[in-house]
């Protein structure tokens, strides 16, 4: 075999499954054919709190094609007394049909199974369910601080350093401001869909998810099965963004397949996704910054409140975003939550950092204004030498390099800091900037690499390509580790039988998988003698990175970035247009510039959408959402998005075998703040409540 070192990593490569996707050859979860397939349709509650008094199954069971109606009287029992993949108990929303309580509007109360999807839907919509309704409470607002409480999640709820009040008192300038972000939804284009069947004593599930290790493990726990008897596959995934873990559809499909002993498919409708797929909690945040006249921070306080459901405690750690950003003598950050009769929130792209950075990076802009210091210079003056609270060294921190490169390319120098001073016809023009950061983590994974007799290589790793291009990135990584061209490498993913691996989440997927692939491929390459005969079954080497990952030194590990936006605001209509946007990132070694740029630009578009458009409005009377579909929930469309550039500075992670950090989420962090700061620069008005809707711009007026 060839031993020449190649440089596939770092070169643009189109998606290895791109042709399959654009020709329709790629099959998504709901398209995989099964013989004898039955279809399940979820029935969701029409009340926001109470009890199911009765389910009138008789009439529905007589309808054409109907096979079964599962509900709390007849569904298989599940076990919820376990700790899942992420060290937390399960969201009890997935413990379907175990009791008569309704925890929120849109709570699953029954599953109708029929021969066809149409029959199941018609029967489900005909099913009469009687409720005993109780008063509900879905009103989230900042005033609920008083009843809020803290709960440690993967990050501690409260972190303190120094004497905050003393430092605030000693500060020449104090910014004390409150910010809110609304409930936001991350509906991926491909709805949640799963097919379950029993085959040779094993439970097989074909699903669309962010990690089959995760889903298989949770299903094994819920149904008290030997993990080895559960196989979950997820070949192509049309977006996840945090929503595609274990949800009602897989559990319903397994229950029905078990009861009927035939394959059953359950697909969520778009509307069902708005109550069953998770979402980002609204946040109410307060930031207090105290600084000397030269902008040096003495005090940094960030408090964030989020809502959760009555069946699961989910923390949206908005304040955690402030723990690694800026040096200050005193730091105080706290995340609180309040329980309401709402669906369980979950991770949504850049959980914590997305809403948290809006508050923190807006407050920094307010401080820059008050101190009369350029916003970039203010950030440079508060660069920490080590973790501001932890005291740990940074693995690498190239935030200032991002601002320098971004300022140069965006044309920041010579910017007139005065707000409301630039007009082009009916438009007021402004520019804004903000910092971005996201944790750069890695988790243990296993991989297998096989040298085939025909000179090619097969990589098996239970990765998930949720649209990021992970399969392609791993092809490049494997090719370099093997020292061969990419066309001799095939990467197989999305099958829990390949062994445990990290999920596509927390911006950790590609890094975690690449580490395992590099380890196995490197060892295989070492073991293959030049010209050695390969047996027909090939030669396989397996890796497990648990030990190597566990041995990593304690450091502050983050990706960073600098966001720049230019906006035009029409004060007569309240319209805000983003005219251009630039993001420069320090996010480790970039494996595939083509898909990486796509990922970063995608994150920035989310930031624009968050700044200007997205807002799920919950009706206090019904407990449900207004317009729970993609017509009513406003996301940025093509016409809202200007030319966006994303690029990066050199920033290889010194402790990663490939130098990767992770780019899944950092692209959206700070983006909304950059837009809001630009709106202030254009109009002189601070918008502290997202989204910056036309009516808010109009009501706030402007300097001009
Ligand atoms: Mo991402 S919100 O970690 O799927």
From TrEMBL:
Xref: InterPro entries: Ald_Oxase/Xan_DH_a/b, Ald_Oxase/Xan_DH_a/b_sf, Ald_Oxase/xanthine_DH-like, AldOxase/xan_DH_MoCoBD1, AldOxase/xan_DH_MoCoBD2, AldOxase/xan_DH_Mopterin-bd_sf
Keywords, sorted A to Z: Molybdenum, Oxidoreductase
rRNA-binding in keyword set: no
Any Pfam family hit: Ald_Xan_dh_C
Taxonomy, superkingdom: Bacteria
Keyword Oxidoreductase: yes
UniProt domain Aldehyde oxidase/xanthine dehydrogenase a/b hammerhead: residue ranges: 23-135
Protein name in UniProt: Oxidoreductase
Lineage: Bacteria, Bacillati, Actinomycetota, Actinomycetes, Kitasatosporales
């Amino acid at each position: 075999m060839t031993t020449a070192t190649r440089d596939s990593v770092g070169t643009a490569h189109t998606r290895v499954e791109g042709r399959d996707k654009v020709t329709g050859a790629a099959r998504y979860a709901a398209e995989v054919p099964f013989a004898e397939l039955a279809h399940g349709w979820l029935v969701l509650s029409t009340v926001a709190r109470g009890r199911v008094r009765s389910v009138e199954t008789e009439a529905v069971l007589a309808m054409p094609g109907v096979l079964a109606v599962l509900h709390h009287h007849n569904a298989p029992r599940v076990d919820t007394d376990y700790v899942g993949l992420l060290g937390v108990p399960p969201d009890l929303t997935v413990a379907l049909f175990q009791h008569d309580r309704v925890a929120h509007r849109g709570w699953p109360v029954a599953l109708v199974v029929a021969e066809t999807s149409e029959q199941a839907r018609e029967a489900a919509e005909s099913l009469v369910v009687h409720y005993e309704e109780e008063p509900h409470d879905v009103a989230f607002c900042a005033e609920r601080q008083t009843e809020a409480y803290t709960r440690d999640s993967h990050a501690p709820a409260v972190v303190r350093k120094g004497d905050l009040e003393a430092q605030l008192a000693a500060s020449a300038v104090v910014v004390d401001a409150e910010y809110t972000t609304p409930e936001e939804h991350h509906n991926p284009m491909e709805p949640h869909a799963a097919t379950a069947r029993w085959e040779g004593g094993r439970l097989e599930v074909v699903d669309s998810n962010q990690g089959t290790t995760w889903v298989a493990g949770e299903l094994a726990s819920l149904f008290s099965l030997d993990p080895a008897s559960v196989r979950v596959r997820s070949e192509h995934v049309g977006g996840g963004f945090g929503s595609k873990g274990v949800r009602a559809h897989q559990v319903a499909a397994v229950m029905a397949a078990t009861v009927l002993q035939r394959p059953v498919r359950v697909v969520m409708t778009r509307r069902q996704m708005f109550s069953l797929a998770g979402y980002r909690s609204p946040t109410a945040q307060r930031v207090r910054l105290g600084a000397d006249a030269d902008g040096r921070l003495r005090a940094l306080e960030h408090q964030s409140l989020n809502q959760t459901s009555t069946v699961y405690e989910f923390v949206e750690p908005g304040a955690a975003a402030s723990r690694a950003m800026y040096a200050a003598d005193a730091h105080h950050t706290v995340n609180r939550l309040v329980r309401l009769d709402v669906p369980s929130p979950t991770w949504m792209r850049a959980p914590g950092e997305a809403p948290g950075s809006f508050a923190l990076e807006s407050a920094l802009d307010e401080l820059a204004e008050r101190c009369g210091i350029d916003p970039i210079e203010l950030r440079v003056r508060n660069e920490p030498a080590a973790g501001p609270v932890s005291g740990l060294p940074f693995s690498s921190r190239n935030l200032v390099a991002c601002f320098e490169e971004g300022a140069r390319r965006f044309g920041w120098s010579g910017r007139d800091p005065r707000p409301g001073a630039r007009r082009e016809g009916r438009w007021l023009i402004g520019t804004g900037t903000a910092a971005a950061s996201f944790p750069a983590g890695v988790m243990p994974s296993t991989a297998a690499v096989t040298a085939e007799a025909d000179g090619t290589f097969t990589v098996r790793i239970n990765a998930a390509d949720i649209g990021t291009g992970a399969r392609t990135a791993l092809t490049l990584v494997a090719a370099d580790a093997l020292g061969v061209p990419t066309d001799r490498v095939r990467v197989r993913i999305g099958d829990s039988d390949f062994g445990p691996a990290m999920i596509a989440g927390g911006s950790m997927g590609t890094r975690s998988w690449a580490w395992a692939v590099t380890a196995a491929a490197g060892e295989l390459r070492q073991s293959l003698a030049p010209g050695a005969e390969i047996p027909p079954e090939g030669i396989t080497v397996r890796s497990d990175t648990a030990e190597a990952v566990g041995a990593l030194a304690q450091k502050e590990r983050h990706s960073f970035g600098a966001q720049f936006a230019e906006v035009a605001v029409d004060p007569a209509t309240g319209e805000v247009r983003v005219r251009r946007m630039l993001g420069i990132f320090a996010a480790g070694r970039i494996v595939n510039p083509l898909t990486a740029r796509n990922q970063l630009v995608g994150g920035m578009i989310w930031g624009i959408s968050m700044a200007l458009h997205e807002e799920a409005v919950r009706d206090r009377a019904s407990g449900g959402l207004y317009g729970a579909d993609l017509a009513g929930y406003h996301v940025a469309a093509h016409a809202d998005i200007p030319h966006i550039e994303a690029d990066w500075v050199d920033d290889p992670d010194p402790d990663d075998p490939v130098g990767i950090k992770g780019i899944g989420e950092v692209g959206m962090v700070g983006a909304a703040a950059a837009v809001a700061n630009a709106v202030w620069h254009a109009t002189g008005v601070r918008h502290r409540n997202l989204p910056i809707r036309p009516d808010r711009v109009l009501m706030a007026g402007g300097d001009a």
